[in-house]
Design a protein that fits this description.
The structure holds 2 protein chains of 2 kinds. Chain A is an alpha/beta fold. Chain A has an 8-stranded mixed sheet with strand order 4-3-2-7-8-11-1-12, sandwiched between helices. In chain A, strands 5-6 form a two-stranded antiparallel ribbon. In chain A, strands 9-10 form a two-stranded antiparallel sheet. Chain A is globular and about 45 Å long. Chain B folds into 2 domains: 137 residues, Protein Transport Mog1p, Chain A, CATH 3.40.1000.70; 137 residues, Protein Transport Mog1p, Chain A (3-Layer(aba) Sandwich), CATH 3.40.1000. Classes of the chains: A alpha/beta, B alpha+beta.
Chain lengths: 315, 313
């Protein structure tokens, strides 16, 4: 006879992201969402800090939305996903921003901090991120690009993507901090919090986001953006910390490209709102990006910035 | 029974032969690009760092996951990548891409280069921007990337580029549509050649969907502050059809306001950035002018283009 699990016990046992694999899809979001504590101060959806000291900006931006302890419980295992796609300036999450997040997590009492990736070590070393992770005592967990290291995850609400293939290592964590750099992308013009989740997904699955034969397929951009929004229905970051300090606005995502320097660190839980805010930094209009609209249609967040509470600070 | 065994043997042997042929074919296809790697005596002070990487066709996603689609739109075949290092640990990454045609190589070259770079006399066209060097020759595009702008890195980029360039014997010409851009006041390195909607979308997103059914087109920026796009079609009927569809989309899109007919076979709209856009149909082409421009200037551009078409035919 199967033993019944009470709600309290369920929550305790569900603390690991990994439980979703057993229970099925859609649960990841609920569990991670559950790890965000109620904040009794002023409710702020997006915190933005502008300044040249990116380490301090990151701390202050997180403070604006309630401080790191709201998101990282004591003794938790934290997964961090920076963007390390290339090492050209303005294409990767800056080491000082990652250093800041690692130190905040340590201060909150995190038991383990894991930077995850299936990209090569060379990317981490060339960007200077590997050194920072080592210096701060976090772990760099590089997952081999082999199917055995990834877990299929069904996407019940998926309109274009029905199944993702997420790195198994991800499920050994309790908290997920998504840390993209916002930048140009040749495939759909914009990279931010939602698109960064492709960094957890197996490359063969990612390849299906991009339709074959771009010359004849008229809906390729739409397909890519729908897949990204679909993927986001099963993984919800506990917190998003976006590097919008210096980034490329042409020749993305790999660069090199033309760089603009808004010097902003943007944080929030609502991915759609955060992406919607970031795209305004280089004048992209709502109508130009399908992904944000699709994320909104999935109920992942708010795309109308008039309905979002944004607090900005300069240091 | 005997017949079955023979048949099985034949099938088995055929499979073996086929798989041997396929793998040999694939390997030799990759080796085609090896011959362009620089000779070591021509790049003094630089040595190979790490092993050679190679990707073919769809596998480009494994190398530049998230950035491969634009190469595929232009027409990608294969790439080899080799890193180099010098005694001061300066690094340079060399990428040699084989595209399907010289037009494809030129197209991705225009996509990767910027108006601010320094033009170089190398191959069919070359540019150095900071620590990033691109040149195209025939259906090959070569990209060299350093990690800083120090003198020895820049010298290394030029040295390796020259050593590769001399080994590429094929040559190519720019697509003929590029010469249709009026030369007066054209910012030379602003030219972008498109082979599909993604290229256009990255240059100017008139619409996220492929409203123009783009197969070939070009864009140039002009000193006065406007851009001219020329989109070509196979015949006049197709051009008319696409022009009519585009007109409908511009009229109905909430992004565009103030729709008004302009001169014959032309209309104008205002975009959400307050810029005027003028669109016209000529023969098997659609012309678009965007930016800081007066109606008188646009009329002149359209008139000159009409004359060009008349003279050509």
């Amino acid at each position: 006879m199967a033993k019944k699990i009470g709600r309290r016990e369920f929550v305790k046992k569900s603390a690991k992201i990994g439980i979703t694999a057993v229970l099925g899809t859609g649960v990841v979001s609920q569990i991670i969402e559950g790890s965000v504590r109620v904040f009794e101060g002023e409710h702020i959806d997006i915190g933005v800090v502008t300044g040249s000291d990116y380490y301090s900006s990151t701390i202050k931006a997180v403070d604006l939305i309630g401080g790191i302890k709201r998101f990282v419980p004591k003794d938790s295992r934290v997964a961090i996903l920076p963007n390390v796609q290339r090492w050209h300036p303005g294409t990767y999450t800056k080491p000082e921003i990652v250093r800041s997040v690692i130190n905040m997590c340590k201060e909150a009492g995190a038991k383990e901090i894991n930077c995850l990736s299936w990209l090569d070590r060379k990317n981490w070393e060339a960007t200077g991120l590997a050194a920072v992770i080592k210096e701060e005592g976090a772990n760099l967990k590089l997952v081999e690009r082999e199917e055995a290291f990834f877990k299929p995850v069904k996407i019940p609400k998926g309109k274009a993507l029905k199944e993702a293939c997420i790195m198994k290592e991800f499920f050994n964590n309790d908290v997920f901090i998504n840390m993209p750099i916002t930048k140009d992308h040749a495939g759909n013009k914009f990279t931010g919090t939602m698109k960064n989740l492709m960094g957890l997904n197996f490359s063969t699955s990612n390849r299906s986001f991009h339709k074959k034969d771009w010359q004849t397929d008229k809906n390729a951009i739409e397909h890519l953006d729908q897949c990204i929004a679909d993927l986001n229905t099963v993984i919800k970051p506990t917190l998003c910390v976006v590097d919008a300090t210096e980034f490329i606005i042409t020749n993305g995502p790999m660069g090199p490209g033309e760089i603009i320097k808004p010097q902003k660190v943007v944080v929030g839980v609502d991915r759609v709102a955060v992406d919607s805010y970031c795209k305004t930094l280089w004048g992209i209009k709502d109508e130009e990006i399908f992904m944000i609209k699709f994320g909104y249609e999935h109920g992942l967040g708010e795309m109308d910035l008039n309905k979002v509470k944004i607090k900005e600070k300069k240091i | 029974m005997k017949r079955n065994i023979n048949l099985f043997e034949i099938l088995f042997s055929s499979c073996l032969l086929l798989s041997f042929y396929s793998s040999e074919n694939s390997l030799s296809a990759q080796r085609d690009l090896y011959k362009y790697l620089p000779d070591e005596d021509k790049i003094e002070g630089w040595k190979k760092d790490g092993s050679l990487q190679q990707y073919k066709g769809e596998d480009l996603y494994l190398y530049i996951d998230g950035g491969a689609e634009i190469y595929h739109e232009y027409g990608f075949r294969k790439v080899i990548i080799q890193d180099y290092i010098n005694k001061n640990e300066k690094s340079i990454s060399l990428e040699i891409f084989e595209m399907t045609t010289p037009e494809s190589a030129y197209g991705i070259y225009t996509f990767k280069t910027s108006p601010e770079g320094k033009e170089l006399d190398l191959g069919n066209g070359a540019q150095l921007a900071d620590y990033y060097l691109n040149f195209w020759k025939g259906n090959i595009i070569v990209t060299l990337t350093g990690f800083d702008e120090d003198e020895e890195t820049i010298e290394g980029l030029l040295e390796i580029a020259r050593a590769v360039e001399v080994k590429i014997e094929i040559r190519g010409t720019r697509p003929s549509i590029v010469s249709m851009l009026p030369k007066k006041d054209l910012v030379p390195q602003s030219i972008k050649y498109f082979k599909g909607n993604l290229g256009l979308y990255n240059s100017y997103s008139f619409f996220t969907k492929d409203v123009f059914w783009l197969k070939g087109g070009v864009k140039g920026d002009y000193k006065d502050g406007y851009s001219l796009f020329i989109i070509s079609y196979d015949d006049i009927d197709e051009s008319k059809k696409r022009f009519s569809k585009a007109k409908k989309n511009f009229r109905e899109s909430p992004r565009y306001k103030n729709y008004e007919p302009f001169v014959e076979k032309a209309f104008q709209v205002k975009n959400d950035r307050g810029q005027f856009i003028f669109i016209s149909s000529f023969d098997r082409y659609i012309l678009i002018v965007v930016g800081i421009v007066t109606q008188a200037q646009v009329k002149k551009i359209f008139l000159n283009f009409q004359e060009y078409i008349n003279n050509k035919t």
